[in-house]
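Blackboard transcription, Thursday session:
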Amino acid sequence: MEDILPVIEKKLRETFGADIISAEMMRDFPVFTIKKDKIIDVVKFLYDDPEMQFRFLTDLCGVHFPDNKGHELGVIYHLHNMRRNWRIRLRVFFALNDTVVPTLTTVFSAANWMERETYDFFGITFKGHPNMKRILNVDDLGGFPMLKEFPLEDPTRDDKDDKFFGR
Amino acid sequence: MSQAKNQKGRMVQQNAPETAEKLEEKEYSILNLGPSHPATHGVFQNILKMDGEIIVDSEPTIGYIHRAFEKLAERRPYNQITPITDRLNYCSSPINNIGWHMTVEKLIECEIPKRVQYMRVIIMELSRITDHLVCNSVIGVDAGALTGFVYVFEEREKIYEIFESICGARLTTNIGRIGGFERDFNDVTWAKLKKFMKEFPPILKEFEKLLVRNRIFMDRTIGAGPISADRALNYGFTGPNLRAAGVDYDVRVMNPYSSYEDFKFDIPIGTNGDTYDRFMVREHEIWESYSIIQQAIEKIEKMPGKEFHADVPDFYLPPKEEVYNNMEALIYHFKIVMGETDVPKAEIYHAVEGGNGELGFYLVSDGGRQPYRLHFRRPCFIYYQAYPEMIRGNMLSDAIVTMSSMNVIAGELDA
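(Written on the board underneath:)
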């Protein structure tokens, strides 16, 4: 595959300058970290620009890194330009007390449920989303299960002690 | 918001679609399709707003069999995640299994021998055939033709026997290992595979004869649940559903994995994106899969070696006899079983062409024994949200065939 990272980085830097926090190659994927408020503009730009044409949202999901203070939560976007077969990954990171991200549903209808899923599991809210509510879990779950502090098993049980193997 | 909106003082049903204001002008009826309905082929609910027989609006509710796979995967060593992937799209579990193995192999940068790659291609294409057979014959069932379904299920049974002779399991296969297969295909497997290759084409032809030009079937399916190429792309459609709308996107061709670039096959596409097109695309894909399997068998027969796994002792369990007699094998065995092998820190996205679309694995590794984060890109979770748009203005019976032709698998939908 041709080296697409410099091509896309140049384009993005021209338009967005310092809003692109980092651009790097992770294995076979060009990865861009973007300021949270600009993500929708960047995606719209990548969608509309005649050279870029990233018109397919492959995936959208949340991540949680409790040790990155100030940037604990993140949303990962995978975009695909099907004409040239370019795949890129965009990332935004933000703090636990500032979890509102602009919605992508205005660009991609596919983002609707993916954002609901991200909300359901990470508590990340998407501003402007038409139907921001839980999708897979029950409404009264009382917590966001994919956060690292959420226990995998019922913590009140004492019959599943695996301490010898460090689990 | 939809509560107590009605002028007549009647309580509107709490989970009615959002546009309940319209109720004031016209009386619509609310119909619950599912969660357990014989025609939904899985546990999902659709709350339909009906104007007589016409669907005005609908709201799907999902999550009935959510099993928290992504959370589970964060607490399991890499080799123990394979059985989880079985339970995503359980109509073609081997594709999920092998897709996961390939994701881990991409993470640890492990080279897989050609013979193993071709063996994997055979398994994946066989399971694509089972997946499409189930989906296509079920469209027939929902349109009133039970015969074809029962007929091709016998062939699906024969493919499951092949899987059984390779890995011991049939539906949730847990087939293969990181690095290859747990053992070589045995003589029974080859015999059953050859027999299947000989007997399958006339049976599929007969099945096609039953439905493809059948007047009743065509009337029921042409124009039912259509979607344009633009909308399909915007909704994140992949797989046969996207190709039925006229976009020739196939992961096997766009980003070849497991040596798919060595095979010659066509990508069938449709034009209208309706139920009939989806049916026809799948039908043609079965023939393409059949031809890929044939090519793979020929390629393997020409190969001199008998290798069935890569040389990755850190991840591939040594043979049991060696574990008892050989110190090195014992150490490797212990480290793999206890999950003490280091992996690189990386972010990986790997996609395979699953039975119903692009099945992606987004894996974040922090070097530990388990994935730090694992996200499954589940094709039917993404495209099922287009369902209300596709059935709007159609009859209820069209909604049924549309759903079965979209190949929505509850296990994958809810993960």
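Lecturer's comment: The radius of gyration of chain A is 18 Å.
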